[in-house]
Amino acid sequence: MLQISWPLLAAAGLATASRPAKRLDNGLALTPPMGWNSYSIMQSNAKALKELGLADLGYYYVTTDCGWTLPHRAKDGTLTWNETIFPDGLPALGDYIHSLDLGFGVYSDAGVQMCMTGLPNQTGSLYHEQTDADTFASWNADLLKYDNCYSSKARGYPNVDYEPLHSPRPRYKTMLEALQDTGRKVLYQICDWGVDFPSAWAPQLGNTWRITNDIVPEWRTIWRQINQLPPSASYAGPGHWPDLDMLEVGNDIFTEPEEQTHFTLWALAKSPLTIGCALKDTFNAVSKSSLAILSNKDVIAINQDSLGKAVNLMRRYTDAGVDVWAGPLSGDRTVVALVNWNNQSISGQLHLSDAGVQSAGHVKDIWNDKTSSNVVTTYTGDVAAHGTLLLVLADTTPAGTYRTDQCGHSNGDRVTYSNVYGMTDSGEYTLTINFGKSNEDEKTVHVSTSASSEPQKIRTSTNAVSARISLKAGSANSITLKTSANVDSINVSHPEGKFYASTAFSVSGTASHHKCTPGLCAPVGSKIANLTAHGSASVTVPTDKRAGSSRYIELTYINNDVSLDSAWTNGTNTRNITVAVNGNAPHRLEVPLSGRSSELFSPMKGWGDPATLGMLVGGFGGAGGRDEIVVSNAGGGDGVQPYGADFVGLRVV
Ligand SMILES: *[C@@H]1O[C@H](CO)[C@@H](O)[C@H](O)[C@H]1NC(C)=O
Ligand SMILES: *[C@@H]1O[C@H](CO)[C@@H](O)[C@H](O)[C@H]1NC(C)=O
Ligand SMILES: *[C@@H]1O[C@H](CO)[C@@H](O)[C@H](O)[C@H]1NC(C)=O
Ligand SMILES: *[C@@H]1O[C@H](CO)[C@@H](O)[C@H](O)[C@H]1NC(C)=O
Ligand SMILES: *[C@@H]1O[C@H](CO)[C@@H](O)[C@H](O)[C@H]1NC(C)=O
Ligand SMILES: *[C@@H]1O[C@H](CO)[C@@H](O)[C@H](O)[C@H]1NC(C)=O
Ligand SMILES: *[C@@H]1O[C@H](CO)[C@@H](O)[C@H](O)[C@H]1NC(C)=O
């Protein structure tokens, strides 16, 4: 058994953002690859994959990771194995794995040596690509994981170089071409740890590509890695998958809820699911609870869903320590995960509208193994410390649409819709009342809402009619219609709000305005940088007296503080940004990465690529008809990152 200092395994950028280049089409990885990776004890664990039923669930590739070869090539120039570890040789191991009907994965490196430290050197594939591809093909390998250590020629081939002078891309392309030349179909896993934003180029070259530095056996790794997903999520699709690195489930470092959160996020991100624990051998056996997590059919089905779309971060309630990640599944279904980052249990309240849904005919609560029907607006459930509420929603209506049969309560000539969701306090919502298809009789409707005392009276002979209504932020609103006509459904849409560009803000302290490279920092073309505890941006806007005090603010921010070197310690891939209104306590949003272009070689190194996220901010309705909005990094400093995210603009809804 190898005792290894955590090796620099890894994973996998050049931005040609607008024109999508042709993606690799080798017919492989139509759903994210599943399997098992390790450094030794291959046979017994491959066998365990079968015996424990994991192979039947889709875990297929068994990959010999770093540590299998020698410091030098054989006399004929080929890579060969260490006979102490593999007495029968790699080809025989491949035959054994194939005899179990599993796929045989091999590992090499796009550098002069493989990553392993603390062992005799392991020679790499750089400058020997065709020889090594031919060797792997002759062993009937089905997968190649291709790492990035000792690859930086310009700096004398150090173990790692997170700021290489040249893109890793050409080295990965050379190996792809060598693999293609063999004629064997080999699933190709690019592992450059996310250097040079590979999502922009790796789908042309590989079936999977690492978007993060290595996973480390600490809970904080999950937060760091998932905060690197948002800019890469849209690159997932059949044949091409962003890789969050192998799973720590089963390594006895996480609690059960933590393992559930980890497995959920990896599965929903459409990352390859690569088991990284010893399943069953002379020394170890996976725990029942970890095996149950790795074997959860519903979660695996989400990962393997034919639509192949990754989830994204829809809403981050930073003050509450809760995230909502969601995305579409085949069959018009939606998957949504509420992640509790607090190290204590909470009663989680999931607003379905954060997943773009208003009501769901069927809900499967996966980790609680529970189903419900006709869920409207919110789903509530206890979520353990660091745990996740994971739901699959089917038979849904889009956010804002309330079907009377699912959501309405009738009483004589009144129908009431309760739990109507408002994202903001506003008197500017549009209510649309949909009568039966061809109902063109003269009708009268009295509309009242919980937020306004005066009912509105509407007369119409059309089959749909609109009214302006007030709602409060949250799900405690109700709408009552008094009418003799049948109402099929109502739709509630929030106002568009008003966008304030960063150019309208004045800066103080460390903060300053910056013009961006043309085309970047959309939609403004400039940003405010260096927001700190001592540097802010402020604007004064007219108060909307009807609105009330809590308004939804959609921030357009930029963060490309990519955690590579800092991945081993305190890197998070996040930045804070705070918004305070009329001198009230600031609200904080800790934003994930937004950069979608190379952190090394693109014109603004990814610091010109914005994203948006929203939060509810109280304190509006200022005296004198004016509201002052201050954007900053309040609380930054003192051991945490002093610089906030850069600021492009904000929309007040
Ligand atoms: C082969 O592997 C063994 C066991 O890890 C190690 O002790 C030995 O140094 C390796 N041999 C060579 C030549 O790398
Ligand atoms: C192993 O690699 C290191 C770093 O490249 C080098 O200094 C050392 O001489 C190598 N050792 C052997 C035995 O090749
Ligand atoms: C979470 O809380 C538990 C129990 O108090 C503690 O043992 C554990 O170290 C905490 N985890 C983290 C990551 O802080
Ligand atoms: C309103 O809701 C109905 C029922 O879900 C839907 O068919 C319709 O497209 C919606 N209309 C608008 C304007 O959103
Ligand atoms: C922010 O401030 C730092 C430190 O003063 C400076 O090096 C950097 O250039 C500034 N960034 C921008 C975008 O102005
Ligand atoms: C993170 O760790 C590095 C290296 O240990 C240290 O220099 C830095 O101050 C730390 N940063 C934060 C934000 O804690
Ligand atoms: C964001 O702010 C919180 C609270 O002060 C802090 O714990 C966290 O480390 C900050 N994150 C960054 C990246 O500075």
UniProtKB/TrEMBL annotation:
Its main location: secreted. It is found in: Secreted. Residues 1-17 form the signal peptide. InterPro entries: Aldolase_TIM, GH, Glyco_hydro_27, Glyco_hydro_b, Melibiase_C. Keywords: Carbohydrate metabolism, Disulfide bond, Glycoprotein, Glycosidase, Hydrolase, Polysaccharide degradation, Secreted, Signal. One of its GO terms (biological process) is polysaccharide catabolic process. It holds the Pfam family Melibiase_C. One of its GO terms (cellular component) is extracellular region. Its EC number is 3.2.1.22. The keyword Nucleus does not apply. It comes from the Eukaryota. GO terms for molecular function: alpha-galactosidase activity. It is an enzyme of class 3 (hydrolase). It catalyses: Hydrolysis of terminal, non-reducing alpha-D-galactose residues in alpha-D-galactosides, including galactose oligosaccharides, galactomannans and galactolipids. Residues 320-393 form the Alpha galactosidase C-terminal domain. Belongs to the glycosyl hydrolase 27 family. This is Alpha-galactosidase. It comes from Saxophila tyrrhenica. The lineage of its organism: Eukaryota, Fungi, Dikarya, Ascomycota, Pezizomycotina.
